[in-house]
Amino acid sequence: MKKNKYNSTIKSPQKGLLITALLVAQFGFAQNKPDADYKGVIGKTLAESKEYWPEPVTAPKGAPNVVWIVLDDVGYGASSAFGGLIDTPVLESLANNGLRYTNFHTTAICAPTRSALLTGSNSHKVHVGGFSHTIMSAGFPGWDGRLPSKNGTIAEILRDKGYNTFGVGKYGITPDEDATDAGPFDRWPTGKGFDHFFGFLGSATDQYKPDLIEDQAHITPDGRHLSEQITDKAISYITKQQKAAPGKPFFLYYSPAAVHAPHQVAAKWSDAYKGKFDDGWDAYREKTLANQKKLGVIPANAELPERNSLIADWKKLTADQKKVYSKFMEVYAGYLTYTDYEIGRLVNYLKESNQLDNTVVFVLIGDNGASKEGTLQGAVNRQTYVAGETEEQVFQNNLNRIGEIGTPQTYANYPLGWAQATNTPFKSWKQDANSEGGTHNPLIVYYPKGIKEKGGIRNQYSHVIDILPTTLDVVGVKAPESIREIKQDTIQGYSFYNSLNDVKVVSSHKIQHYYIFGARSIYNDGWKAAAAHHPNSIEVKEALNDKTKANVLNADFDKDVWELYNINEDFNERKDLAKKYPEKLAELKKLFDEQAKKNNLYPLIDWSDVYQRKIHRTQATEGQSAVELLYKANK
């Protein structure tokens, strides 16, 4: 070989070309190397290669179907399944053949509860501290209303484990700006793991003229009651799936708008309650408390909290007041009984198709406590806040339209007295995250194949974030490390699977914080510290009606008074121990701050912030007061 002037070997042209070709071939093959999970062999020819097909994903052998039923705005003392005076025979049957969980908790309002339920993590942690509605969300990690992809839903998890996934009814956690037919659709239900979805994206809708979608498009409702439509659709989805793949398990999220306002139902359902509430809300509370003791869903020595100071003594009302208020309750009761009937249609279908025995059903009787949003008089109009309108004017309007309550012509919601009654045995109500009345809801678990005891009572503390991990344990799958190649956060909930067949098992859920629009609390192994916060929606209405109360819109978090309760001994918060145990209170307040930081809860946002944001979006004119602007913005 020849040497060049640098004393290096000069290769022949032919040998150099051969080396180059080999290198190109080698690097070319490396660039086309399949992913690490590929277990076949790729040769130069088919004869030198070995094909590989990944095994299709299937659910564990014998895995049950899963049905989650989530009712809306139902207090602890409404359904007969937990001692209330409203007939719900289907829920009673599920409870009598399953388990009643008496110490289950929600977040105190709908969207945070649903985001926590679907992801198994706290609502601020998954960005839904308030709502996904533009006016009630804010540009902070805990408040922007957008579920992160790293917090996969139960539908995404089960879909990837071999389930078909269906949702019907209320979704409530799609950002407003995404909720058009132009999308984007990644935060619609079909973008969060549901194969099919039929229902509505918002927080509330008219029962006969719903803002209806199916999959990724708005559709025209057919005029029937929404609950009937969603039940038909749920049955249709399952029927088609089972015909195509008999025995394949499914997950169904059945979430009717009921019994959130508007309270609308066919007259035959409300007429069945004529005269049954004429003795009023005070009597309702006493009767319900007695029923609850007989069922064993509250302690035998339980006592009622005093009637809220905003609510009148029923005996002192006029005949006209009793007539109007009773009508509101008859409609609400008929609405709940009708909802129970529709649930029964679903249950009967599963039974007749031989699927019920291998189905686990979780029934959340309410996503928060009873609603206070009907205010003191009850409402027949969608717009409940009308500037300058007196309580007497509201009542006279309701009296004049009493025959329309419950019809498609009204947007009915019952008065505050019935909210307290249907929340028996607790004080306060929806939105009040400081109170058991806002957060303490009934839970039924029904699973013929997996629960030995029928009609059992479980008193272990649990929270809405616990439903997802419990479901995974029942199904027999682990939470995934990633979903569609997106690494997942750790699920925050605690499974209570072991309690299904062990009444004595100790709850693993020891610490839980709560926060809705300023009202806040912290639970720690039986102790609870809580702070009410003002304004709330009732006081906003008072501010609208009385300009001298406009300062209620500027509440100070530092002036909130913290209370302390031993929930193990005082489950419905009748004895404030803050002065007796100041060290314990300080300890829990510190714990709340730690949990708030950990879960993206800060900054604190309350109703005044929400409404002031509306005001800032309203064109102000000279001479208008803050309350007048608030009224204009709220329209």
Automatic annotation (TrEMBL):
Sequence ranges assigned to domain Sulfatase N-terminal in this UniProt record: 64-477
Top-level taxon of the source organism: Bacteria
MF terms (GO), sorted A to Z: hydrolase activity; metal ion binding
Keywords, alphabetical: Calcium, Hydrolase, Metal-binding, Signal
Record-linked Pfam families: Sulfatase
Residue stretches spanning the membrane: none
Gene3D superfamilies, per the entry: 3.30.1120.10, Alkaline Phosphatase, subunit A
Signal peptide span: 1-30
Family from the record: Belongs to the sulfatase family.
Protein name: Arylsulfatase
Organism in which the protein naturally occurs: Flavobacterium aquicola
